[in-house]
## 1
Amino acid sequence: MSDVMDKTERTRLRRMHERGHFDRETVNGILDAMPLCHVGYILDGRPAVTPTLQWREGNHVYWHSSSASRAGRLSAGMDVCLTVSMLDGMVMARSAMHHSVNFRSVMIYGKATKIDDPEIKLTKFRNMIEAYFPGRWDLLRPVSAQETKATMVLSLPIEEASAKVRTGGPKDDEEDYALPIWAGVVPISFSVGAPISDPLNLPGVETPDHATNFRIG
């Protein structure tokens, strides 16, 4: 498998080609850093976008949804577009039209595959929890058959994909650098706070390391 994905008509950048990345290391790094994604699709002739959580296993990305939701009507083979975005900074220039943002994003196109086998679904549930909180699955109450039935899991191969990244400061018109206007970057980062225990926790139940050590970004 190549470390660099082929550009397609859907993934090639029309503008700002220097921001495009087609290597798996960049794409996978962004997917692994941000669990929240948006899945776009056409259902009943209407476009829709669903926010959900995603996790990566090798060269596939997975996400889940309620089987009773609109997104639950997605079927195997349906074309989807999955995106993940991270905001890293507000870029303030000397001209209003040169203001920008520093960001990292991934866009993946392909046909969704719905996982119907209950045992495979259960494995995917485990992989999802372990992707976010390593070591937590074995501590949890087992998933019931009804929960498995009520939750849909879909996957998408990471084949037709691209990343787009902007870093650095503002890029002004040459003559604007002589203007007495402050320009620069306001960095933005995700902050993970200390875990807040459920007041209904039983006495003596301690906060696990996978909650204390959770990180994102």
## 2
Amino acid sequence: MKITFFSHSTCMLEIHGKSILIDPFFSENPIFRNRKKNFLKFFKKIDYILLTHAHYDHVCDVELFSHKFHNVLVISNYEISNFFGKKGIKTYGINYGSFISFPFGKLKYTWAAHSSVFNDGTYGGNPGGFLFHTDEGNLYISGDTSVMYEMNLIPIFGKLKLSILPIGGKYTMDIEEAIMASDFLKSEKILGVHYDTFEDIRIDREEAKKKFYEKGKELILLEQEKTIHI
């Protein structure tokens, strides 16, 4: 499994030859706008776009990518899927429930403690995360959330190779709460997201890594466009 981090919560997963883009946030992202880069050049193909919730910093480029990659399938909760389906985009609506099989493996939509609304005020359904069970390992993407006791359920379904957790605080978990979440998840390797994009979610990266290390865990903080294999 290959994971490329772009910034904020935007990642690309490559599993069984399928390219899965998570929460695309480029055109309104200050990191990419200031660098004046054509972010579409990064992508040769996208098979799926997964959306955790409706906030603009997670969905603002769905239409742009769907126009470039006409066969892309957007997977999200029922309300977000309906929102984009009405725009002529191929969608697959899910909700909290069972695992669903896709060519890359099994996928479950998981609970998140957050909010979800589009910029125009349209209701974005319940926010969530995604649990992947694949032949290449199990991965949990929490989405924007605070720490929740429900996270204890995730490892019951199977051991995780990696958890992707927000660590910026204010709108989501901070470092200390993400460590608590990793304990609930029984996860020793964490990819941190949702930090440093804006002034009010800036962190001390070295201090964050140290705090995870002191708890016997590895916090991975990738630079933009960098990749890890798990």
## 3
Amino acid sequence: MGALPLRLDDFYRDADAPGLPCAHGIVDWDDPATWDAVGALTALTGLLQDGAAVVPTYSIAQSRRVGEHTVEVGAHQLIVAEGIFALDLLPLIREAGLPVCPLYLDRNRWLVAGLRLRRDLAQHRKSPRVLLHRGWALLQAQPAQRDRALAAGFRPLTMRAALAELAD
């Protein structure tokens, strides 16, 4: 009955957590140190072993966790852990011996940047200035990020091919 998304963005740390890396005078949310990898792995393990996990509810606009909720596998046959830190989660998943099929959505970086900006502006995630600055940095970094993902074992697929594969 389809895929259950596990949003890795919900595992960001609060902006006032000590020791977060900064860039250009603000927290560098693209740095893995701003993210709770252990919490994400714990949630994924719980979903696979117990069928449910309590995960944080994160407000990107407020840069903090604003609650928590339970995610249940239910009738879903597949869990999709998606987000900017999927590449950082992969070695932890493998080390834990969990089943994984790492897919990389291989999309035009300009399209991705446009879609990201539209989403972030619509959701008021950050100020437009921050969104433009961060978006430009992500656009520039995407080729290297793709190379890292493929080197780590992610398989590149178009959006259409990935949706078809996940539907099988």
